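cache lookup: miss for this entity combination. No prior model stored, computing from scratch. Input as submitted by user K.M.:
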Amino acid sequence: MNYGIDLRNYEAVIGLEVHAQLSTDTKIFCGCSTKFGNPANSNVCPVCLGHPGVLPVLNKKVVEYSVMMGMATGSRINENSIFARKNYFYPDLPKGYQISQFELPICEDGVIKISTEERGAKEIRIKRIHMEEDAGKSIHDRGYDTHVDVNRCGVPLIEIVSEPDISSPEEAYEYLTKLKQILLYLDICDGNMEEGSLRCDANISIRPVGQKELGTRTEVKNMNSFRNVEKAIRFEIERQTELVDDGGKVVQETLLWNADLNEAFPMRGKEESHDYRYFPDPDLVKVVVDEKWKEGLKERLPELPAEKMEKFVNVYNLPEYDASILTLELEVAKYFEECVKYTKDTKSVSNWVMTEILKYLNENKVSIAQFPATPENLAKLVNLINDRTISGKIAKDIFPEMIQGGKSPEVIVKEKNLVQISDDSVLEPVIDEIIATSEKEVKTYLAGKEKAIGALVGKAMKATKGKANPQMVNKLLKEKLEAMKTA
Amino acid sequence: MVSYSNFSEKLALIKSGRLTLSENVDFFLQKIRDNSDLNAYNFVFEDAAKKRALEVEAKIKSGNFGKLAGLVVAIKDVLSLKDNPLTCSSKILKDFEAVYTATAVQKLLDEDAIIIGKTNCDEFAMGSSNENSAFGPALNPVDKDYVPGGSSGGSAVAVAAGLCDVSLGTDTGGSIRQPASYCGIVGMKPTYGLVSRFGLTAFASSFDTIGPFANNVEDAELLLSVIAGFDENDSTSVEHQYTPDEKNLDEIVIGLPKEYFGEGTDEEVNKSLQEAISTLKNNGVKFKEISLPHTEYTIATYYILTTAEASSNLSRYDGARYGYRSENVADLAEMYENSRSEGFGDEVKRRIMLGTYVLSAGYYDAYYLKAQKVRRLIREDFDKAFEEVDFILTPTTPGTAFKLGENIDDPLKMYMLDIFTTSANLAGIPGISLPVKNVTGKMPVGLQLFGNRLSDAGLFAAAKQIFSLL
């Protein structure tokens, strides 16, 4: 992949077009279900099949979701916006045109803030957000014939078009991550790239560092994950750089990313030279979003990622690093906030969530919604450690049981008799026994190597099956050994 | 069979038992067969109409029946009626069957009308003579050598020849008023949005309207009053309740736009109109000369905008999912090219090409956008005129019906025939064509009356009185 080209002489200029499927129950212009995975051509009606005489009727929710996305990205919400027809022929496009927005989209001029290690904080401007209907799906792998599934036809989409403010594959990845995060926080898109709920095309050009004028751009399509977007952009920057370095010229074209080969290939044929003949759709009236409607939607806006992050730092007193990880996914953030209703030790909860829980989710490929231990139980676990009922070690031991059986940690501690031993009268005989049988370690300690106490603590813990309070053990051991010194 | 001159008479006859609906429907069916050379119908629903006649008759006897109970209606074959053919007189929809019913048609059924068949028309409602039909031309019942006008030719012929009581047509640029004028009957185009377009096969969405044909104004109004009304399935339909108007002719002023009475209008039409106007004047109707200054741009504006919309509206007929698919297909591009080349007639193809052209990159601003601006000016012409007058009177067409084949090779000449009707569609206002006496020739002449937006009831009130005076 790396051609060994010095990229430092060039800078990349990248703009992303993201299509997000809105999670409404019904389609944008008819009452059909949007459910994914239903039998082919079952979510259809005369309207989305493009029968003669049918007319589109706009789904109000689509407007609301689009406006919310506009608000979440600080965009201007246009009071009047219009739908336009994008005309082209394809078998999975029943009407021979897609209803979209062209002039006067619903939202314009927003921004998404990103931050990467290499380039720091940056604002990526959003040029526009517009509403449109999805096309169907052509299936080419069933022998000679092409099959068409129209279920997806008319499923609502918003297209979010960035300005070419992105300068690296990493920034693109970060931009997409932030964008998806906002969509999920708003609960207007499920963000599933494999099912096509989120799709991304990249416009890429390069120019010598310092040059103002933009280079010729190419468009890369067909990436099915954020990582693939990142890879495809890297590939294309390197390809263009090598080409220009060798005295060649970038041709404006559309490339398709092949994730198996890790390469992008030019799309062949006429598909590129479309004249879509956009014009206002005469079947639809202009969309009017007045102040009152906007106010209502503003009130409905949930806490957004940036606000959540601030709250985690300032209210829960977490380090920024913790806050950024915990707020990345709304559900994780919610889990955390649920936990801290039951304990004051926010940092310990953060540690548990970031390490044990996220590890579990990753390993088992499940979402936190499917995580079996309740927030209340995790909080109880933290409290049991803090009030010295159990040690951290015991806590780690019973955590899997909390997941497995869904039991509360208190019940497990009781059932297994795992309460930490902090009673002098119980611990003293154990410690005396250890001192008596550990001649070597005691000698080393008395000779001045106080680190040797660690081994003795370990022995005590082992003898009590981990239940001894380690601090107490440490204290008692020290007292007894120091006494032996002076004796 | 006993005769009647309007629907209220007919209903009285049925109620009194002097006329049975079955007998009436049989009479129409026989007459349709006897006049099959007129080619008014694409499809006749013989069995369904007979069956429904019995049902409706029983309803009338029970005393619980709809507003149109007993009315025998024909509908233009661009309107959807579930489980029945919908061809738009095109080969491309030759075997297509509608899977749902148009709102306007459903309203007829809900009021107990009997739908006797679907009428011939120009393909996808594009034409002024009914010669652009895959079913062949319909003929003018006044003289079979003449065209009945179009595009709703079959609907006009069916009413004029007595092959039904009333009919529904569609009017995008005059397709109801012009054939009504050519066949000597009443045809009315309502305010845009007054009647739902849901189930009307689109030609030009921002122009298309559904309206009635009848032998008298009362029946036309009755039919319109039933199909009018807001429909949640049509975002462009208007929330407006149709309520009949009682306005008297001596309370109103009628405008005579000078642009509609000058050169380009045939002598026989001019003379006949002048005769009608003086009759009205003699009866106390007040007239005022007005100007609609952008009239000369109506045809160009109309053909740019309607073809643009049509080029997009007709994209769905591509051979992929329903309708005609060429057998001579090697790949996807050929499927589109050959299916559409073989499936569409010449006039439809001409308009698709014209519309595609005016929307193309580099031409959009000069044609489509410019035409949209002129459309606004034309609309403003009418707004201004209606500040001065209540209605506007014009000839419906510059000439009377022409002979079959006479203009078929001269599309531009054919387009010019729409000169007096297209303005109402550009402005979205209602218009009605009423028959007047031809003072010099034999073919019917039409008088057109325009009203302001949503003045449909007032227009009918005026038309009723004018009709009775002429």
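stored under new cache key. DSSP finds 15 helices and 16 strands in chain A.
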